[in-house]
Design a protein that fits this description.
708 residues; alpha+beta; Rossmann fold; eight-stranded mixed sheet; five-stranded antiparallel sheet; 16% helix
């Protein structure tokens, strides 16, 4: 009991001083103050139209102006003065853009205004109610599209009138897979509005319990589980001229996927990727914007495992018929230039890049469309760097320093602002010329954590059993002594599209890991096969067998740890959330002699309980892969539990529904095996806000207590 009370006092204690007069980081501050303790950054940097001037809002509430050739910023505008002039209530300059050299546009998701910074006048352009969502403002035509419930409105006029709540228009579809993040799309001049529509009649209603009312109420969500009936998508195209809507249906099955929608620059056509439900065959199709009729299949891609387009076609020049497509058909995301030609039967692309590393996204193009700017990992997959390539396939690395970069190019293409962070650099931002000459330094942040007793972080790599490079992050306590023995907490995610180890501030770690390290722990994280930013071969080995290769690689990390004399191999703990919860539980049950204690948050316990769009990509349908589903199921291995296991779940989790955890708890009960379970009432897939302190105390105190 005394030990536990001491732990609580450490967790919630305020700052105390060590002999070196450095502050001790409390767990509460590590959780709640991570953002305020992160390095100072240049915020809301924007280039002013086609000029050499830029603005930034250092505190989000005061706008400063600068010239690339000037040393000092000039205060331009305060948010309170703008609010006074417009009679608005903007909290900051967060949703701002420059319309021209003198006028800014502000959008806080409810009120859209313009303001002339020279003559200090402006007006409210659009204002919507609090029930309006998914706002998409088209500044060129001054039209605002948004949704209320399951219908779309344009400037207060309903363009869909879905009475049936199962028909949903204007929201993202496919549960945000395939790079989908929106449901409303304007054509370049605002002549057409395209939108996703989904029919969810055949999708099961899944009940979530709302305990805030008396008695409690069931709230239903649509949750399509693997192998069951899915949503049926359409694409609507609304003409602002004749006020009519035409619809595009999948050309294959009704439950195929629509994604990567874009208009051609002349607004005449829509390009959309259609992916079959098995997710191994994609067609990029062309439709007529006016009639919705199918025009042509431009090309298709197939793969025995999966095809996952995540980026819409990019037209670098509105006057040209060239578009860029990102594809990993050669094993890594690369750029391919196509000619948009409706006459020829075949059109062979020009492969602009032939990188053996991952391209992440296209940033922009030069004003003449002859150069493409894009982000990529570069040779080191823990980095994010930027390149420029031309239509001849000649490319150039723009960001020379190793780290995680963000780039903003001036509209005239003469300058770019490069901000970056790395394990060694808290944050740096500077303006460079087109030729990569440094014109001025904007900021070179100091490390705020220098005032605290913080341990060390290193990033390295080991070889996996298949020869793959596996990158790890290793955190040691501030007073690390190599002659002592330390317990280890392995923090794991391990799932697709995620990368835990990055060359960025703290190596991508959370501050609570440093608090835990200073309690006498080593904190270790490894990105196994299946995780993101490594190319198709590395990421797709998990197909139909989730858990197998990931566990194999995590055990390679454990063997690496055991090679150090200061590692106490009898006191290994593991923790993760979501896919990391699946990995934590899998490691505890499938390798029961390795870890003494585990804490699994929001875990998938059987992939038949998870959603169609994600689950079927990696596991196929349950009837197609019975052996794989059974092997990956935690119920299959529950009998093996030896160590202490704590399962945690948000009671209204709409991503990994709590049925996952409850099914595993029931299995343990059936087997007569004791374990621990803790619910977080009325929290979704993770625990946020002030309750997160309670969560981290629960997790870390459990590990410390059980891993003695």
């Amino acid at each position: 009991m005394k030990i536990y009370l001491v732990l609580i006092s450490v967790i919630f204690g305020t700052f105390s001083y060590t002999l070196s007069q450095k502050k001790e980081l409390s767990l509460k501050d590590a959780v709640m103050l991570q953002r305020s303790l992160s390095p100072e950054r240049i915020t809301n940097f924007l280039w002013i139209s086609d000029t050499e001037y830029s603005t930034c809002s250092k505190d989000w509430k005061t706008l400063f102006k600068n010239n690339v050739n000037a040393d000092k910023d000039v205060e331009l505008l305060k948010i309170e003065n703008l609010n006074l002039a417009l009679q608005t209530s903007y909290q900051n300059f967060g949703g701002m853009e420059w319309i021209n050299e003198t006028t800014i546009l502000l959008n806080d998701g409810q009120t859209i205004s313009e303001y002339n910074v020279v003559n200090k006048t402006g007006k409210i352009l659009k204002k919507v109610g609090v029930d309006s969502e998914n706002l998409n403002y088209h500044s060129k035509s001054n039209q605002l599209a948004y949704t209320i419930a399951n219908n779309i409105y344009v400037d207060e006029k309903a363009i869909t009138k879905n009475i049936d709540k199962n028909i949903v228009s204007g929201q993202s579809i496919a549960r945000n897979e395939f790079g989908i993040s929106a449901g409303i799309f304007w054509s370049i001049n605002g002549s057409y509005l395209a939108f996703y529509q989904k029919n969810e009649r055949n999708v099961h209603d899944y009940p979530l319990l709302d305990i805030n009312s008396t008695p409690g109420e069931l709230v239903s969500i649509k949750y399509p589980m693997a192998g069951q009936r899915s949503e049926e998508p359409k694409i609507g195209i609304y003409s602002l001229k004749n006020h009519k809507t035409v619809y595009i249906n999948p050309r294959g099955n009704k439950d195929d996927y629509f994604t990567n929608l874009c208009f051609t620059p002349d607004e005449k056509y829509i390009l959309v990727a259609e992916v079959n439900r098995d997710q191994n065959h994609m067609h990029l199709n062309v439709y007529d914007s006016k009639t919705g009729k199918f025009v042509k299949k431009l090309f298709e891609e197939k793969n025995d495992k999966w095809v996952e387009p995540e980026h819409a076609a990019f037209f670098p020049d509105a006057k040209s018929n060239i578009f860029i497509w990102i594809s990993e058909r050669d094993g890594f995301n690369n750029l391919y230039a196509y000619t948009f030609n409706l006459e020829s039967e075949t059109d062979f692309p020009v492969q602009l890049t032939k990188h053996r590393f991952v391209i992440k996204d296209i940033l922009s193009a030069s004003s003449d469309g002859k150069e493409i700017y894009y982000s990529a990992t570069g040779e080191n997959p823990t980095n994010t760097v930027f390149y420029r390539c031309n239509m001849n396939g000649e490319n150039e690395l723009l960001t020379k320093e190793s780290g995680t970069h963000s780039l903003l190019i001036s509209k005239n293409g003469n300058y770019y602002m490069d901000s970056y962070t790395s394990l060694k650099v808290p944050h740096s931002a500077k303006i460079l010329t087109r030729n990569a000459e440094i014109r001025k330094e904007l900021i070179n942040s100091k490390e705020k954590l220098d005032e605290y007793s913080i341990g060390t972080t290193e990033i390295g790599k080991i070889k996996g059993v298949d020869g793959s490079d596996l990158y790890y992050r290793f955190i040691k306590p501030q007073n690390f002594d190599a002659t002592k023995k330390y317990p280890v907490l392995v923090y794991v995610y391990g799932g697709p599209h995620a990368q835990m180890v990055t060359n960025s501030w703290l190596g991508g770690a959370n501050l609570w890991m440093h608090w835990m390290a200073n309690q006498g722990y080593l904190i270790f994280t490894l990105d196994n096969r299946g995780s993101g930013e490594r190319g198709f071969e590395f990421e797709s080995q998990i197909h139909r067998n989730l858990g197998d290769y990931e566990i194999e690689d995590q055990l390679s990390g454990i063997n690496f740890l055991k090679s150090f004399p200061f590692v106490d191999s009898e006191r290994l703990a593991v923790h993760g959330w979501s896919y990391g919860g699946f990995m934590t539980s899998s490691l505890m049950l499938r390798e029961p002699d390795v870890f003494k204690v585990g804490v699994a948050g929001g875990p998938v316990t059987d992939w038949k309980y998870y959603e169609i769009m994600y689950g079927e990509r990696y596991m196929d349908r349950p009837e197609q892969n019975k052996e794989g589903y059974e092997k990956a199921s935690l119920m299959t291995h529950a009998k093996n539990l030896k160590g202490d296991l704590l399962l945690i779940h948000g009671t209204i989790d709409d991503v990994v529904v709590m049925q996952n955890n409850l099914a595993l708890v029931k299995k343990f009960i059936d087997l007569g095996i004791q374990m621990d379970f803790f619910p977080y009432p009325m929290h979704k897939h993770n625990v946020s806000g002030k309750d997160r302190v309670h969560l981290m105390e629960k997790i870390l105190s459990y590990i410390i207590e059980k891993n003695k």
